Amino acid sequence: MMLLRGDTIEYCEGTPRMERVLWVDSGGAYYAHLNLTDPSSHPQVSRTADALQDIASGRALIADKAPLVVRPPEGVPQKHQQKRDAHWALIEDIVQREPEVYDRLSRARMISAAMSTHGVTRPTVVKAINRYWRRGAVPDALLPDYANSGGKGKERHPGDTKRGRPRKASATPGLNINRALRRTFQVAIQRFAKNRKLDMRAAYTKMLGDYFGAFTVDASTGRKRFLPLPEFQKTGYPSFDQFEYWATRDNDMLDVRKRRLSNRVWELTERGLTGTSAAQTWGPGARYQIDATIADVYLVSRLDPNKIIGRPVLYVVIDVFSRMVVGVYIGLEGPSWVGAMMALANTVASKVDFCRKFGIEIDECEWPAQHLPATLLGDRGEIESRLINILQNTFNVVIENAAAYRADWKGVVETRFKLIPAKFKAYVAGYIEVDYQERGGTDYRLDATLNIDDFTEIVLALLVYYNNHHELSGYDRHPGMTADGVPAVPVDLWNWGIVNQSGLLRRFPEEHVRFSLMPIDEATVTHQGIRYRGLFYSGPLPLRENWFDRARRKGVWKVRISYDPRNSDFIYVHTPNAEVGYETCTLTARSRESRNGSFWEIGAQQGKQASVSAAREMDQQNRLIEALDIVENVVARAAARKEPSTMSNAERVRGIRPNRAEEKTANRAREAEEFRIGKAGDRSSDPMGELIPFEAPSARTVPDEDDYAAPSMADLKRLRNNDDV
Q: What is the pLDDT of residues 26-83, one digit of tens each?
């Protein structure tokens, strides 16, 4: 057990409190911590052994309840970013001077220097430092919480003065809505819900007539006149806008509409349809390197094994100190920031769970890396723009970009790429040899048999071997490693560094890191589900808030989502007001054929389906034209066969029933002839059974039992006479 930066220690005995670990010295003997429960507390430096003893004895535990600011950069307004950057400029030089900053006298001198430099007051600097430490010790901790300002959603109690802007085109000033008036509005809404003939405006008018005035008789004319009650003669009635506002605020209008409609109509028309090298580092986590390469093997689709999908892109993240592979990602997009994000998200994932997804069982000690580094080195094309902002401001990771055409700056990770293919190329069909595309050479694309999951399983098995058994040649050891007899194997170097050179690893919740680093896009809320790239999703949030019902009534709208390009089963809807910032949505039954696929494979499948439909379009149109031609010929032939009738229209209508009976008799005779058993052409020798004629019922006793027309008065009279007999 060890303490890491960012850990939260929860003490349950005595006075409960939460403490955040701000710093751990390189030897792991001391750590700085801050009491998050007491808002007036200051950092203290204590012995690490004491905290570990408390955790081991059960008096304390490592928790993940402390506040942590996780906000996608796109959701932070420019003014908020400017305020964050201004406060960060105030305290950056102070908080990075560890461990001096944790001494009260030293910190006081630093604060005084910052006051002189920036021309601010002491409370401004102290408040920024305290906010930085308490909210995760990352620059984004300094973002303002304006969402908590103004008492949004809290009910205000009106006084006598009219609120809101004065009325311009009214003879009365209006009135404030108090609890008594809101109760009256409630009665009107209940009437509106029960009476389908009332619309909202009619319910408002009915309410005014019942509760805000009375009829009186004009003595001079004798006519009844409606006048407002005395208390409303000066102020006027509540406006329709006030009535509608409070009705919507105090009632679930979707539930009101359900009550106004029958269940059958609601279900039919309203409901939603768902359905560096070691010399430049001083311990594990000091610097990670990330790079991508296109693997020299062709893969097939998981959805159609006969379909070749090309070569995968392999992303690897390596800890420079120990050479351990701490993160990996295999995808189908070319090297880009999307793949780099997913590889970095994998660095904080539990490798035990990750390997188990692909059928490989390991112990945590075989792959213990699930942390973010202090510094990350990568290519300019992969670590730029949005990724830099997230890593620096949300997780306080320093970004180093390799210069153009200087891959040697990432020599550690580049070397690993040469080791992995060497292990599996002799066993993998579809691997590209050096004679590829030479005249007479083999087309290795046709040998492809592995899909992306198979290839991932192979790579993971080799990475587990590499981390635990591959001995590094030419590794420049720390003097202490030689004294302790540590073999140059990545996992052994990592474990030695954790004990002797630690203090730089940071632990963050895996789901927060994954959400922050995933690609962001927009999806559409429809009555069938949340539509994204032709797939439909649903989850607790849209069902709880009736999104799909609203979409069917009011139309579609856009929502921001994050997604994992490799797994199309889930999307993550942004919910800025929620504690974690997102809610997970899963594929609905409407898109069940796309389960367990990646967005690349789904896109290819949709493209294939579109091609099939496009190829059939001309033939489909031709067949439709042929069918319509037959229809036209039949109609023309029938029209030509019809002769002018000498009967009146009334006579023709009266003859429908006997004409039907005559036609039915002819049809029966023809159908009996068609079903006779025997050879066509010699019907004299057909074996025939005895035909027993059925006597047709008298037209005067009962109507034709096959005639489903409504009985006439004469038919009913005949039936009654027969019953009397």
A: 888 899 999 988 988 999 999 999 888 888 888 888 887 656 666 666 677 888 889 9
Tokens encoding 63: 């928790």
**Residue that the structure tokens 């587990």 belong to:** 464
Between residues 591 and 601, the one the model is more confident about: 591
Question: Is residue 409 scored above 80 in pLDDT?
Answer: no
Three-state DSSP at 484 gives helix
Average pLDDT over residues 256-269: 74
- State the CB neighbour count (10 A cutoff) for residue 662: 11
Q: Are 448 and 311 in contact (CB under 8 A)?
A: no
Closest CA to 580 of 568, 562, 598: 562
Helix (H, G, I), strand (E, B) or coil at 627: helix
pLDDT at 43: 92
* Placement of tokens 């954790």 in the chain: 498
Question: What is the C-alpha to C-alpha distance for residues 702 and 699, in angstroms, rounded to an integer?
Answer: 6
Rg (CA), the chain: 40
Report the C-alpha gap between 335 and 293 in whole angstroms. Answer: 7
**Cβ proximity of 370 and 348 under 8 Å:** yes
What type of residue sits at position 515? F
Q: How far is CA 720 from CA 278, 370, 701, 703, 725, in A?
A: 108, 90, 10, 12, 9
Closest Cα to residue 319, out of 513, 495, 81? 495
DSSP-based three-state secondary structure for 371? coil
Using DSSP's 3-state secondary structure scheme, residue 219 falls into coil
**Helical axes 510-517 vs 337-347, angle rounded to 10°:** 170
Alpha-carbon gap, residue 185 to 193, rounded angstroms: 12
The sign of the torsion formed by the CA atoms of 508, 509, 512, 515 equals positive
Give the C-alpha separation, 478 to 501, whole Å: 10
Tokens of 514: 């994954």
Q: How far apart are CA 234 and CA 228, in angstroms?
A: 10
In tens, the pLDDT along 177-201 reads: 888 888 998 888 888 888 877 788 8
Distances (CA, A) of 78 to 74, 141, 578, 645, 696: 9, 16, 21, 84, 90
- Asked if residues 430 and 449 have their Cβ atoms less than 8 Å apart, the reply is yes
Q: Which of 191, 91, 106, 183 is nearest to 141 (CA)?
A: 91
- C-beta of residue 587 within 8 angstroms of C-beta of residue 536: yes
CA distance 51 to 31: 9
Give me the pLDDT at residue 393, please: 82
Structure tokens at 45: 């430096």
Residues 73, 576: contact at Cβ < 8 Å?
Answer: no
Q: What sign does the dihedral 87-91-95-96 (CA atoms) show?
A: positive
pLDDT tens digits, one per residue of 633-669: 888 888 888 888 888 888 888 888 888 888 888 888 8
452-463 mean pLDDT: 90
Sign of CA dihedral 12, 13, 17, 23: negative
> Would you state the pLDDT for residue 191?
83
Q: Are 159 and 61 in contact (CB under 8 A)?
A: no
Per-residue b/e over 555-568, b at no fewer than 16 CB within 10 Å? Answer: eeeebbbbbbbbeb
Q: CA 247, CA 203: separation in Å to the nearest integer? A: 11
Alpha-carbon 590 to chain mean position: 16
* 63/367: higher pLDDT: 367
Contacts of 409 by beta carbon, 8 Å cutoff, 6+ apart:
276, 377, 402, 403
Superfamily of structural domain 278-513: Ribonuclease H-like superfamily/Ribonuclease H (3.30.420.10)
Is residue 383 within 8 A of residue 340, CB to CB? The reply is yes
Using a 10 angstrom Cβ sphere, with 0-12 exposed, 13-18 middle and 19 or more buried, the burial of residue 52 is middle
Phi, psi of 550 (to 5 degrees): -65, -35
DSSP string computed for 98-115? TTGGGSHHHHHHHHHHHH
